Amino acid sequence: MGRAEGSNIRVASVPHSQVYIRHTGAVPGERNPVVRLPDPDPRNPGQSTEATWWPPVMLDAGWIRESADSFDLMHIHFGFDAISPQDLQAVTDELKAQGKPLVYTVHDLRNPHHLTPEAHDAQLDVLISAADALITLTPGAAAVVERRWGRRPQVLPHPHVVDLEELERRQAVRLAAGPREEFRVGVHLKSLRPNMMEGAILPDLLDAVEQLPGAVLQVNGHPDILTPGGDKYRPELHRWLSEAAAAGRLELQVRDYFDEPQLWDYLSSLDVSVLPYRFGTHSGWLEACTDLGTAVLAPSCGFYAQQRAGVTEFVHNEDGLDAQSLANGLKQVHAARNRPGMSRAERTAERRMVAAAHEELYRSLLTD
C-alpha cells in the first residue's frame, strides 16, 4: 500500500542544516508535507541541533538501525567527504535491510577540496549505484552520470540561497541606488581550496580589468593564506597581491569568514563575481549572486554556466586558462551591467516547483 496523498513524509536528510536543503522544502507559510529530521548533534547524537551537523551522525549503519522507526527514507546531499567507501556501503546496505529508500543528489562530480578525483569517485561509485533515485542540478551533470554509471538523474534547479524577503529587500535597494559609475570586479580566494590553485587567474584578470573604464578589481582572502604565520600562508601570492595593492592596481581585503549578512553585503557591493575555479561542478555562491543581482563570470570546468542563463563563461580548467576568453567575458559582463537578478516571484515559483518535485519523488519511492 502506498502512503496517503496528504500524509507527511519523514526524511532523514543529510544534512538538514544547510541552505540548499532548507530551500528545497515548501515556501514558508505553505503546506509542508515533507518533514526533515533535525541533524543529530555529533557531540550528543541523542539530541538534535540547528547549526552543528558535522560529522553527520545519520551516515552510520548503527544509527540507521536504531532510528529506523523515525524516518521513511534517507536523502543524502553533503557530508560524506571523510567517510570511506566501505562505511558508505554499510550505510546503503543497512538502508536496504530496513526497507528505507535512498535518494542522492549529485551536487559534486568532482570534490573541490580534493586535489585528485579518486577518493570522491570511489564514494560516488557506492552512492550512485545504491540510490533508489538520483537528482542533480544541470543537464550536463546528468549526462556525465548517465555516461559513467548508466543512470539518468532527475534535473532540478538549485533553489534560492538568500531568504526570499531579504532577496526582495536587497534588490529594491540596489534598484533604487541606480547605475553605478564604478564597475567592481570581485574574486574571493577564501582559504584557497585545491580547485583555486594559488589564484592563478589573477594576473590575467587584473590586465583585463585595467582595460575597462571605471573598473576596479577587489580581491578578498582569509588570514590563513594572506598573513605571515597563517596555517596556509602563501608568501608569493601575498607578495604579488600586496605589491599590486600598493601600486593602486587592485584593492586587497584580508579578513576571516563572512557571516550571512556580511556575505550578502559583500556580494551586493560587486558588479560581477569571478569564480576562479579550475575544477568543480556546481555553485551555491553563483546562486546567491543571482539572488542579489550580481553578475557571475564562471569557468568552463563543471557546469556553472548551465545553472543560470545569465552566467558568462570563460575557458579555465585543469589544462589552464584562456586569458582572451576571460577578457572577452569580462567585457561582455561590463556591457550588460546592471542586469537584475531573479525576482522574488520567480524564485518563489521555482521553489514551489522544486518542493513539489521532491515530494512527488519521495511518494513514488514509498509506494509498494
Write a short abstract of this structure.
The chain has helices at 19-22, 61-67, 85-97, 118-130, 139-149, 164-177, 202-209, 223-226, 235-246, 260-269, 284-292, 304-307, 323-335, 344-365; strands at 9-14, 34-36, 39-41, 44-49, 73-76, 102-106, 133-136, 154-155, 183-188, 215-221, 251-254, 272-274, 295-299, 312-314, 316-317, 320-321. It is an alpha/beta fold and 368 residues long. Strands 2-1-5-6-7-8 form a six-stranded parallel beta sheet, with helices on both faces.
Explain what the structure shows.
With 368 residues, the protein is α/β, with parallel strands linked by helices. It has 2 domains: 9-159 and 348-365, 3-Layer(aba) Sandwich (Rossmann fold); 164-335, Rossmann fold, CATH 3.40.50.2000. It contains 14 helices and 16 strands. It has helices spanning 19-22, 61-67, 85-97, 118-130, 139-149, 164-177, 202-209, 223-226, 235-246, 260-269, 284-292, 304-307, 323-335, 344-365; strands at residues 9-14, 34-36, 39-41, 44-49, 73-76, 102-106, 133-136, 154-155, 183-188, 215-221, 251-254, 272-274, 295-299, 312-314, 316-317, 320-321. The strands form 4 sheets. A 6-stranded parallel beta sheet has the order 2-1-5-6-7-8, sandwiched between helices. The mean pLDDT is 94.
Per-chain topology:
Blueprint: E1 9-14, H1 19-22, E2 34-36, E3 39-41, E4 44-49, H2 61-67, E5 73-76, H3 85-97, E6 102-106, H4 118-130, E7 133-136, H5 139-149, E8 154-155, H6 164-177, E9 183-188, H7 202-209, E10 215-221, H8 223-226, H9 235-246, E11 251-254, H10 260-269, E12 272-274, H11 284-292, E13 295-299, H12 304-307, E14 312-314, E15 316-317, E16 320-321, H13 323-335, H14 344-365
Parallel strand pairs: 1-2, 1-5, 5-6, 6-7, 7-8, 9-10, 9-12, 10-11, 12-13, 13-14
Antiparallel strand pairs: 3-4, 15-16
Helix pairs in contact: 2-3, 3-4, 7-13
Protein name: Glycosyltransferase family 1 protein
Region (Disordered): 29-51
Organism: Arthrobacter jinronghuae
